[in-house]
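User: Show me a protein chain along with its predicted structure.
Assistant: Here is one chain, sequence first, then C-alpha cells.
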Amino acid sequence: MNLYLGIDFGTTGARSTIIDSQGMIHCETAYTFADAQPPELPSVWQNALWETIEQIPPTIRSQVRAIALDGTSSTVMLCDTDGIPVCEPILYNDGRGAAVTETLRAIAPANHTVLSATSSLAKLLWWQHLGGHAPSTAPTVFLHQADWLAFLLHGKLGISDYHNALKLGFDVDTLCYPDWLIEGISGAAMPVLPQVVAPGTPVGEVRAQVGDRFGFPRHCTVCAGTTDSIAAFLASGVNSPGEAVTSLGSTLAVKLLSHTRVDDSRYGIYSHKLGDLWLVGGASNTGGAVLRHFFTDAELDGLSKKIDAEKESLLDYYPLLQKGDRFPINDPNLLPRLEPRPTDPVEFLHGLLESIARIEARGYQLLQEFGATGLTKVYTAGGGAKNLVWSAIRKRYLKVPVETPIHTAAAYGSALLAKQGTQI
C-alpha cells in the first residue's frame, strides 16, 4: 500500500497525518514544542521533526511513498551553504521590519504584498541593513521554515514553493523573481534566494541516513510544501469560488477561493495562486493565543457554554498580545485594546470572542469590497473550530453558513500535497 505523510509546523507544535490514495487516515501524531528562545528554535524544530516521525509506527513508515511539509508563513532564516543557521530565525509575527519601511517602499511597487513589517522581504532587508551581517561574511541562503525542514529530509538546499515565497516578492504570474526585487537587494551581502517551484512538486528522495533511521522506502520522495494556513485550506476540500476557510489557531487567517486576484498591502490583503483560481485573504495576529493568555483550555470550554451566542457583547476589543497587526488593519504600531475588563470572566470571554468575530467579518468584507468573489460559506479549521458558541457568534456576523469540514488539520492538507506530488 502507498501512504502519504504530511507534517504541519505551527507556532506551538508539530503534527503529522498519514493518508492512503483514497484520503483515508492511517495515523496521526503530535509533538508540542518546549518554550524556547529564538536562537534555540532551529534545534527545537529539528528535534520536533524527528520526534513527530518517530511516533509513527514502523510498519506505516515503511509504506510512505511521499512527504510534504507546511510551516508558518514568513517565518524565515539565514543559513550557510551547508544549511546550518547563521543567526536566529525571525518568526512570522515579528515586526522588526518596520525599521526598514522606507527602504522597502523604495524597492517594491505601490500596495505590493511585501509592503508589511512582517513580510519575508522586510525581514531580509532588516538582516541586510540592521542585522549585523557585513558584506564580508560568508555566503548565506535565505529560507522559509518549511524550506529548511524539508531540506533536513531531502538534503537539497535552497528549494521553496510559491506559497511560502509570495511574501518574499516572488511573482506567481511570471513564476520568477521580479527585477525590482533582485536589484533592490543586490550587493555583497545579498543571500542566495531559494529556487521556487509549485507546491507538491517532487524535490528529491529522502536522504539515505534519514531513510535508514526511520525505515522509509528507498524511493520515498519529499515534495515542495506550503504554508500552514493554505495546508488547512487544502484539508477542507473546498473547491468552489465563494467558499472560504478561516483558520482559528494561535492567530486568525482567512482564505477565500476567488475567480479574481486581489492584492492590497494597505490592508494586508494578498492572493495565492491555486490552480486556475486565487486564494485571497490575510492573516491577523489576533486569535487563540490571546484567548489562552487569559484562560486555560478547560476554562474556555466551561465559560463558553455560559455565553448566549445570540446576544451581542457591547465590549469592543482589538485582542492582541503585543502591538501590531497585519490584517484587516496593516499597522505594526496598532495597540491592543483589552479594556474595560469586566470582573465576570464569562462576560470578558464573550467580549473577546465577539471582537475576534468582528475582525474576521471585517476581513471578508474587505476582500469582497476589493473585487473578490462573493462569500457564500465559511469552513472553520484550527482549534477554534471546536468551540460551538464561537461558531454561532461568527455566523451572526458573517451572515453565511459556518461549518466544520470533515478534515481540518493542516497536516492532512500537506499529506494531500504529498499524494499530488506522486501524480505529477
